[in-house]
Amino acid sequence: MVQRSDGSRPTLVELKAVDPTYPLLGELRLNPPTSKETAFDLENGFFGAAAAPALLKALGLQVGDIARLGTIDIQIRTVIVSEPDKSLAAFSLGPRLMISRTALDQSGLSEAGGPSYYYSRVLLDAPDKAEAAIAEIEVRFPHAGWRIVNAADGVPGIERMAEIGRSLLILIGLSVLLICGIGVSGGVSAHLTRKTKTIAILKSNGAPRGLISSIYLWQVLFAALLALIIGLIAGAALQQAAMGLAAPYLPFEWQPGLQPLALAVAGAFGLLTALLFAIWPLDRACSTPAQKLFKHQMKPQRDRHTWKAVAIMVLAAGLIGALVMTATAMPLFALIFGGGVALAVLAFLGLGKGVGWLAHRIHFKNRPVLRIAIANIGRPGAPTGSMIMALGLTLTLLVAILTLDRHAGAHLRETLPAQTPDLVFLNIAPEESDAFAETIAVLPGVQRFETAPFLHGRLTAVKDTPVRDWGVPKDISWVVRGDRGLSWRAQPTDKGQIVTGEWWPKDYRGPLQASLDVKVAERLRVTVGDRITLNILGHPTNVTIANLRAVDWTRLELDFPILLSPPPTPIPHSRVAALWATPNSLEAIEKTAQTAFPLSPFIRVPAVLTKMEGLIDGLTTALVMASTATVSAAFFVLAGSLSAGYRRRVKEMALLKVVGARPKQIALSCMLEMLLIALAAAIPSALLGTGAAYGVVAKLMPGGWTFFPEVSVLLILGTGASMAAIGYLLLKRQLNRQIASLRHF
């Protein structure tokens, strides 16, 4: 905790202490540029420090000003522009402050048991030897308790998030491609409809089916290749521009340049998708006899396709699946997501077929506008199925994302502030624990105060098997990755938490036992009676699991995934404390604590919640923006589907005008047709999206399920209004044309 020299504005920082040789690799960039000696050495009674710009802003200080750190005063002599090893930090609760190792020793902040970490960066003669070097170090020093990171894998935790984000973007992109594929099919159908007479003439003159298929397949592939080139160039340019804008905020130096492999994968996805969805209408056109083509009836007998076409489609689909499994770092997640998307596509296509079948059998004698609208939905060749599929998949995704966002936001804004502590104090010396409680717990406004012992340890073995060989699932790897916070209790805080096993006696002082979070235990495949090994202060310690308990981590209370029995002999440690208080009393409590116990920093939990809320809002915004790609794809499908039947619609409109239908009636029927299609897709989508969100909430989110009807209602109304407007605009221009001109379509 750093504060101004007058004791005001206490701010939690991420403190780094460096030796005179830092950095051995990379460059520390400072502003104004200065040597490390000038920046950090003792001068005029003050140790020097380099601060992040955010810290100067929080403290209201400038270069040259004095600040208080622990038991010493420091002088801010320069500003940190970039650090060569900043990427090693996955998450920070405060801005960076950098001092010398000598200053750290003088500050009183590096006592035994305190939250201090030591980092070393190792340069190998060949990067491909990193994994072998890590394995050898772990074998030679099995009980050292070191956390070893291969820099090529990124920051532990961050690389997992990056894998999830990358996989999610790939799968959303795949969803977009599937939706666009329906549009490709509609566009190809529209193109072949215009070429019906040409195909019929070729067939009548003896042209073989293979030749006709090849001609139009190469046309489609050439158009797809041209679109791919344009798309890849635009995508690469946007990526470079976005990274260039984000470069100043990244914890690493970004090097501009193209990624040929990524572009090749994207191109392969696009080309295979175009091939998959173009084969169906091509084979349908080539399978239709010439006599029917001359009558503009492009429909094969019994709607059967050749085995070659089916084989090509199966091969293209298989290659797309293999590409997805190869491109994503989470094949199981990709398989589940892809399977869900495929089932949703089939479900909505089936729904579209069902709606068309039902519309074909419904007749309204006294409602001409409604009769025309429903007849258009159920007529042969209507694009009802593809339109409902595109809208349904898009709206399902949006409903699920927005509902989850409402749940997460409500939990962060309403539930958590009422449950979580307002302040968490760290690094309380054990000998000062009683004095700390007597001073802080009795201050005005304090509603609740808890304290617990705290030290760092590392889980190194499970059932006498090193964790590196145990096969720890990635979703629980945070438990075994590096040091974990440990604590001990004589009695449980809530006996209702215990799921299985028994708590140790109140006066127990025997060999260490442990209480594990039941979810952690399940993923580690351990239970009551099993043994785990903890590295505590460099010493391996075998611990027997005595019980499993349920822990609600979202409450941010003083709880730990591994809780120990009281140690038989004293262990160097510190203590942590949590405090709940009225909002108007927090400032006075902070000032008292910082004055009386300057070596015990505190975390403002509401500020952490605000930061978490911002992260979730940013994630939701990113997902919604990614989902807008599916919206764009849906409109592309809509355009392709409508263009495929455009000529037929215009002829039908001319016929309706001939028999006396007024333009207003024709426009209303078209609007009503689109509105009914929108409702047929939106209502099931709202149910399916809400159901998907419920499954996620029930599995991952606390606090139970809350239904947010406004999300579904607004999307249903918005979709209906948009589709009705599209229906009106579709034929607006043609409604004002003369019947004689319409006749030529």
Characteristics of this structure?
745 residues; alpha+beta; 8-stranded mixed beta sheet; 6-stranded mixed barrel; 22 helices; 19 strands; 53% helix; elongated
Describe this structure in words.
Strands 1, 2, 3, 4, 5, 6, 7 and 8 form an eight-stranded mixed β-sheet that branches. A six-stranded mixed β-barrel has the order 10-12-17-14-16-15. It starts with a strand and ends with a helix. The protein has 745 residues and is of the alpha+beta class. Helix 5 runs parallel beside helix 8, helix 12 packs across helix 20 (663-700) and helix 13 (384-419) packs antiparallel against helix 18. The radius of gyration is 33 Å and the shape is elongated.
Rounded to the nearest angstrom, the radius of gyration is: 33 Å
The first-to-last residue Cα distance is 78 Å
Summarize the main sheet: 8 strands, mixed
- Counting H and I runs of at least 4 residues, what is the number of helices? 22
The count of DSSP E runs of length 2 or more, i.e. the number of strands, is 19
What is the overall shape?
elongated
**Strand fraction:** 5-15%
Model regions low in confidence, pLDDT < 50 over at least 5 residues: none
Query: Taking all residues together, what is the mean pLDDT?
Result: 79
Structural class of the secondary elements? alpha+beta
Helix proportion of residues, in percent? 40-55%
Write a brief caption for the model.
By secondary structure, the protein is an alpha+beta fold. It has 22 helices and 19 strands.
SSE map:
Layout: E1 2-4, E2 14-18, E3 29-31, H1 36-40, E4 42-43, E5 46-51, H2 53-59, E6 66-69, E7 72-82, E8 96-100, H3 101-107, H4 130-140, H5 158-194, H6 196-204, H7 209-246, H8 260-287, H9 290-294, H10 307-327, H11 331-360, H12 368-378, H13 384-419, E9 423-428, H14 433-440, E10 446-462, E11 465-466, H15 467-470, E12 484-488, E13 498-501, E14 513-517, H16 518-524, E15 531-536, E16 539-549, E17 562-564, E18 574-581, H17 586-596, E19 602-604, H18 605-644, H19 646-658, H20 663-700, H21 709-735, H22 739-742
Parallel strand pairs: 2-8, 5-7, 12-17, 14-16
Antiparallel strand pairs: 1-6, 3-7, 4-5, 5-8, 6-7, 9-18, 9-19, 10-11, 10-12, 10-15, 10-18, 13-16, 14-17, 15-16
